[in-house]
């Protein structure tokens, strides 16, 4: 596409924003990232993350790190309450398990530290208020979160990476909304060193799924936040999926934080009402013993409502505004494929900007990938919740063994 350096504004400085900022910097363009949250608020929602093949491809091509950033696994194990394995599901390809913070810190350090490509700007506490197209350039109006002072940037291209509740998308595609899936996820991380020897033996180097009365739990083993994979320095990540009716009293209570504010999607770390957490921990006592131990040793849990959608379009304003990552399509998290989607879109744009493809093809590929991945993730969710294997997964998953 363009051969000269152009001005690119990226709205949202989380994983999708950083991945896109990096590829455009490497293409020789001037990149300016505007992120609404403060650095500490960003970290407060940090969680475990499966880094898919497209994420690793970009890390290998652009970052070329030799530091470990993930553990690996090639099996999902389903256990019953006695700890007996009732199904072992090969993942097909090896899955890489890491954390949001590890990836974020690696990507951001590269964006700001790589001296072989044009310098990039990354600003936190800058909220984009408006994105306007005059048929030539796109004007991005944003304000400082603390002072409220507004500023304007003229861009040749805007990348909307502002997440599932994207205000940029809401302006251009007002009918596309995330839809509640009927369940929430409770999440936490526990340092390996604080877990008993007995539970570590069960949980280490495994991805374990345990079906509960109204949902299921999953746990896995990842490097420490500093990337250490030394013995005793990993951490265990846990997620507990549970059905919860959207307008119920329990839903309202769950999403009302410690200050009385009702949260739309996530009650972040440090904001959960202690009464809510005490109840959750008490119900955790009925789960498998090692998982119950993780719950009891979690000091900063958080909870999210699960929603999904796939946008029918990713290319807006004659190709001057592109929707990427969760701003484009939000998956239910069972497959752990969201960051992979963002990386795949970023990689596809390299071809477009090198003149090896066009935006119409890129948009078509984005919609096809999102539609297919969303359906597979929903099917995996159905299996994990119920034990029934949907047709879509019948070659990948054999029926569970009956519990002895
Ligand atoms: C339970 C659970 C498990 C998950 N597990 C995985 C997994 O294993 N693997 C995986 O790949 N993904 C997983 N995810 C999803 C993953 O966390 C992200 O959704 C994914 O990385 C895509 O991020 P994003 O950058 O598109 O959006 P986000 O991370 O939501 O980032 C959007 C950013 O835009 C900023 N922003 C919003 N509005 C504005 C504005 N107006 N101006 C400026 N900035 C703005 C926000 O502050 C935010 O930082 C999981 C999610 C959940 C809930």
Automatic annotation (TrEMBL):
Transmembrane segments: 6-24
Presence of keyword Transmembrane helix: yes
Record-linked InterPro entries: DHP_3-monooxygenase, DhpH_subs-bd, FAD/NAD-bd_sf
PANTHER family from the UniProt entry: MONOOXYGENASE-LIKE, OS06G0597600 PROTEIN
The 2,6-dihydroxypyridine 3-monooxygenase substrate binding domain, residue ranges: 180-308
UniProt xrefs under Gene3D superfamilies: 3.30.9.60, FAD/NAD(P)-binding domain
UniProt name for this protein: FAD/NAD(P)-binding domain-containing protein
Keyword Transmembrane belongs to the record: yes
Source organism superkingdom: Eukaryota
Keywords: Membrane, Transmembrane, Transmembrane helix
